[in-house]
Amino acid sequence: MLLLIAMMVVACLGMSMLRHKPTMLQGEVEANVLRISGKLPGRVAHLLVSEGDRVEAGDTLVHIHSSLVEAQLSQAVAMQHAAEAENELVDAGTRREAVRVAYDILLQAQAALSIADKSYRRTESLYKQGVVSEQRRDEALAAYEMASAAEGAARSQYDMALNGARREEKDASKAMLQVAKGGVAEVEAIMEDAALTAPRAGVVSDIFPLEGELVSLGAPIMNLLLPDEVWITLRVREEFLQYLAIGSSHRAVVPALGDKEISLQVYYVKDMGSYAVWRATRASGQYDAKTFAVRLKPIDEVQGLLPGMTVLFSDLYYKY
Q1: Which domain holds residue 101?
Q2: Which of 141, 164, 187 is the last residue before a domain boundary?
Q3: 196: closest CA among 81, 47, 24?
Q4: pTM of the predicted structure, to 2 decimals
Q5: 80-122 pLDDT, tens per residue?
Q6: How many CA atoms lie within 13 A of 117 on its CB side?
Q7: Are 167 and 227 in the same domain?
Q8: 128, 146, 232, 236: least buried by Cβ within 10 Å?
Q9: Lowest mean pLDDT across 43-57, 79-93, 286-300
Q10: Nearest residue to 260 via CA among 305, 211, 208
Q11: Cα–Cα dist 39/47, whole Å
Q12: Above 90 in pLDDT, residue 266?
């Protein structure tokens, strides 16, 4: 009898030891990270910060030098100067000497037209009197018409010389100047990234190249951690979502901060997809459960809360 009682006590102790205790849900602190990169390919000339440094918005982080882009800028500036000179030449119009020559030719044409006109009128009068033949009258008329056409051409040449280049030529010259200015602006925009600055306040978490290394266009230079934009991510099976509705508040402790208790609020819930489904192990009595990512923000500011820290939820447990 005593042996039977002893066996029953041992069995009860074994069952109690095998029974799983509730397990506290565990989350992890995460934060936004800005990747610092630029449009200027070149060599890292100076790194002005180190990993762990806190920077403010506008602080210079790194200097990048590119002799190739500097040469492109010099070439673009030279092309702009050439386009400006060409545009000034077109706007200035024809030289005064050419205008004077065109005017002299016009005067000669006008004199020839005057003589041809008088000759034609005289010949026409004599023709009517029967003194000259019709052929002579026609020759005088042809000479007058030729002189009139020559006078018109000379006047057009003089007007062109006086007015300068045509409107189309001026528009084309101005367009070429704008293209040259655009080339300079494009290279200057690239050169602006010779000194990369912090777009926001944060902590330098990672620096990728060393001083003297070459970096390509858009290559990441460093990461800027935003410690003021932190959240806690909790991954749970879907049956726990009834306790984690958006807007609900929860208590948690942070072991890295001496088990400091903090208050959190749910603001985001999203299905993690089929790759994170909890598959049922029994043929009956269980079902496949999806996993959801739940994000919570601290209700009050928590000093020292850093990405990667573990957060234990004191009011939520896995129960087996």
Answers
A1: 75-187
A2: 187
A3: 47
A4: 0.54
A5: 777 777 767 665 555 566 667 777 787 887 888 888 888 888 8
A6: 9
A7: no
A8: 128
A9: 79-93
A10: 305
A11: 17
A12: yes
